[in-house]
Amino acid sequence: MTKVNTSYETIIVGGGVIGNSIAFHLSERDQEGILVIDKNFPLSGTSGSTQAWVWVHNKTPASYAEFSMYSAELYPYLSRKIGDVEYKRTGGLSPFFTEKDLEKAHKLAQKYSELGIKIKVLNKEEVLAKEPSLSPDVVGATFSKVDGNINPFRLVDLLIRASKKQGVAYSYYNRVLDIERTENAFIVHTQKETYLCKKLILAGGAWSKELGSYLGIHVPVKQVRGQIMVTEPLAPLLNYTISGMRQAINGEVLIGYSMEEVGFDRRGTLDVIQETANMAIRYVPSLANANVVRCFSGIRAMPKDGYPIIGHVPGVQNLYVAAMHSGITLAPLIGTLMTELILDGETSIPIDDYSITRFQEPVGQL
Ligand SMILES: Cc1cc2nc3c(=O)[nH]c(=O)nc-3n(C[C@H](O)[C@H](O)[C@H](O)COP(=O)(O)OP(=O)(O)OC[C@H]3O[C@@H](n4cnc5c(N)ncnc54)[C@H](O)[C@@H]3O)c2cc1C
Questions:
Q1: Which residues of 285-298 are buried (b: 16+ CB within 10 A; e: fewer)?
Q2: What separation in Å is there between the alpha carbon of 299 and the centre of ligand 1?
Q3: What is the pTM of this model?
Q4: What number of other Cβ atoms are within 10 A of residue 227's Cβ?
């Protein structure tokens, strides 16, 4: 018989922004007995290697943009509760360089307006008046007031500090090796100990597939690498978060949005960095004079259809999953909704579209 060391009400596997947002919101509602387990340290996954835009506009369908907007709206409140996450609602600009894109932009704006999301289509003069450092080759841009960015390091750190104050326990450098299901509990085997818990939340990001497999659950998440280039701190250059780059509070400009399906390989490559530099100069010509101080890459957790996988796993009582790209944008909302689902049995905003059941694959085998 398995020797269990410690029992918890809820175990969250994954100490990135998603696992920690859930831990924070659950413990805020006085839920006791929560343990967050991570095989490394909290920012070792994707949450520590991200652009960290809080980004709403350009997302399709418009209902997904609406979902993201609700999360963006929660950031000021989250900041007030946990501390300053350097959330800046800069507004977001998505520049384009061809007349064809102008048509697309008008169509997008129309679809969004039906859901009450305001995006403006700006002409060249309007774009350059807002963001004078952009190239004069720009044809126009879509603009949304609700976009912005945050400091992901502060966000995760402050979520952890607040969660700990609310009684959440943490175990780092402790890989989950296997998970067993008994009639009404889970036995979580880790490198350090074996735990028992009533509720289990899989928040393993890019590793979600592996975690699901321990329970015979298929979580269709693939890995997509992204490489980012960082400049030296520059004098204020960008007024807005631009799709492709943002200027952090310390003046560094973070540039890039590559998408490469190379598994868990986090190496940087010269070709992608070169393309990223070319894109930067095309958008903002003065960046040609900036020094690059570092490059980093991260692995996106990309669900098969690109949309979040959140909620209860049907067929397995008390098992929940939360895996997604755009986890920085969505973290406050996911923490809130997962808490409602777990404690109240329903959510204030529907999440059915994001259920794992949409993949029509056998999910629960128990
Ligand atoms: C280059 C790049 C740019 C991005 N830009 C943006 C952006 O601008 N805006 C935005 O919203 N999103 C962006 N994202 C995505 C966003 O960063 C992620 O969606 C988010 O960080 C995911 O958080 P997470 O908590 O789900 O995953 P993670 O931060 O990866 O956390 C998962 C944790 O699970 C742990 N874990 C996994 N398996 C086990 C196991 N067996 N045992 C114990 N622990 C385990 C891992 O160690 C990890 O710490 C970007 C991503 C990349 C790579």
A1: eebeebebeebbbb
A2: 7
A3: 0.96
A4: 24
Distance 364 CA to ligand 1 centre (A): 24
**Whose C-alpha lies nearest to ligand 1, atom 12?**
326
Q: Read off the pLDDT of residues 267-307 as tens digits, 9 standing for 90 and up.
A: 999 999 999 999 999 999 999 999 999 999 999 999 999 99
Whole-number percent of the chain with pLDDT over 70: 98
Mind listing the pLDDT tens digit for each residue in 1-15? 567 779 999 999 999
Residue 365 has pLDDT above 90, yes or no: no
Q: What is the pLDDT of residues 242-269, one digit of tens each?
A: 999 999 999 999 999 999 999 999 999 9
CB 301 within 8 A of CB 327: yes
Q: Strand ranges (DSSP E) for 174-281?
A: 176-181, 186-190, 194-202, 221-231, 241-242, 245-247, 253-255
Minimal-distance CA residue to ligand 1 atom 18: 327
Give the model's pLDDT for residue 109: 92
Question: How close is the Cα of 45 to the center of ligand 1, in Å?
Answer: 5
142: phi then psi, degrees, rounded to nearest 5: -90, 150
Task: Scan for tokens 């095989």, then name that residue.
Answer: 39
φ/ψ (deg, to 5) at 234: -115, 160
Residue 339 region, left (φ>0) first, then alpha (ψ -120 to 50), else beta?
Answer: alpha
Q: What is the whole-number distance in angstroms between the Cα of residue 150 and the centre of ligand 1? A: 15
pLDDT of residue 142: 96
User: Which regions of 14-139 does DSSP assign to beta strands (E)?
Assistant: 34-37, 53-54, 92-96, 119-123
Distance 39 CA to ligand 1 centre (A): 13
Around ligand 1, the residues with Cβ closer than 6 Å are 13-19, 37-40, 44-47, 49-53, 55, 175-176, 203-207, 211, 226, 228, 298-301, 324-329
- The strand pair at 6-13 and 194-202 is best described as parallel
- What would the two tokens of residue 347 be? 């959510």
Q: What is the pLDDT of residues 90-108, one digit of tens each?
A: 999 999 999 999 999 999 8
| Ligand 1 atom 53, closest CA | 298
Contact 328, 54 (CB under 8 A): yes
Q: How far apart are CA 312 and CA 201, in angstroms?
A: 9
